[in-house]
Amino acid sequence: MMKIIDGKKLSEKIKDEITQEIFQLCDRSTLSNRRPNLAIILVGTRKDSELYVGIKEREAKKCGIDTHLYKCDSNIKERELFDMIDFLNKDKSVDAILVQLPLPEGFDTDGVILAIDSKKDVDGFHPENLEILFKTCNHKHVMPPVFGAVLEILNSINCKIENKNVSVIYNSEIFGKGLAKVLECEKGKVELVHADDKDLDKKILEADILITAVGRPEFIKGDMIKKDIVIIDIGITRRDGKTLGDVDQESVKEKAGFITPVPGGVGPMTIAMLFKNTLEFYKNRKK
Fold first, then answer.
1. Closest by alpha carbon to 82, among 124, 42, 115?
2. Which residues are identified as catalytic?
3. What is the pLDDT of residues 193-239, one digit of tens each?
4. Share of the chain above pLDDT 90, in %
């Protein structure tokens, strides 16, 4: 029988640990007892981005992390956005910076990521952070929260990656190749499969672990997987008022061993790992 991995419950455990550590650190802090501080930049008025930012602010407060939200009109000049990031980079009271993605059309997303101080890059996609992560395989270093969420989820069910066939279905190159490298560091046998690959069915049929992040509702069916597979569903789509993942859970329930639900799986875990990165930056700045 397929087991559902409760990402919400697992994330609450991680956030409780973060809360306790922050309490202990602030109690003996040399930084005037200030708490970790996460600056969030939101450009535009996308409803989903506003929702996600609101959740991050609310959950951060529960953990003892202060947040400061910088809301910008979608017509803000790119130069002004870079100036804002530069100001936050230099602000000694700010430990971590998050630019909520996606940015409105016309913005240089790669340039914005590059502009963030790597020592405050809470999303972990700055080239300096990725270089350390990929070259050293140091998974205790800051990593993109979604990558950390995948590792934590697999660890929570005692699923060893070493020598396992892992298929990663992706649309984004930076996500797909980045996650593949992290899994290869854990000695997994990784197969990167683009969502539009005509041989997708064949390439994932022998996977022991399937990770999908495409945003195509319920396109993974039971006849595409082998028995007892572990499925991590990162895809998320709204359709007819419902939130759906990439996997048709009803179709795979007789074959899959474990699966993350949508919602309530990877999403809450990604936020927890975001806070874990914030705490690490805070601790590093205290040293």
1. 115
2. 56, 100, 123
3. 999 999 999 999 999 999 999 999 999 999 999 999 999 999 999 88
4. 90
CA separation for the pair 47, 29 (Å, rounded): 38
Print burial letters for 89-119: b (CB count within 10 Å at least 16), e (below 16).
Answer: beeeebbbbbbbeebeeebeeeebbbbbbbb
Cβ neighbors of 149 (< 8 A, separation 6 or more) are 7, 266, 269, 270, 272, 273
**Those residues with Cβ within 8 angstroms of residue 133's Cβ, 6 or more apart along the chain or in another chain:** 124, 139, 141, 142, 143, 181, 182
Beta pairing partners, 59: none
Predicted TM-score of the model (pTM): 0.94
**Structural domains in the chain, sorted by start:** 32-117 (3.40.50.10860), 144-266 (3.40.50.720)
> How far is the CA of 163 from the CAs of 2, 155, 166, 182, 207, in angstroms?
23, 15, 9, 14, 11
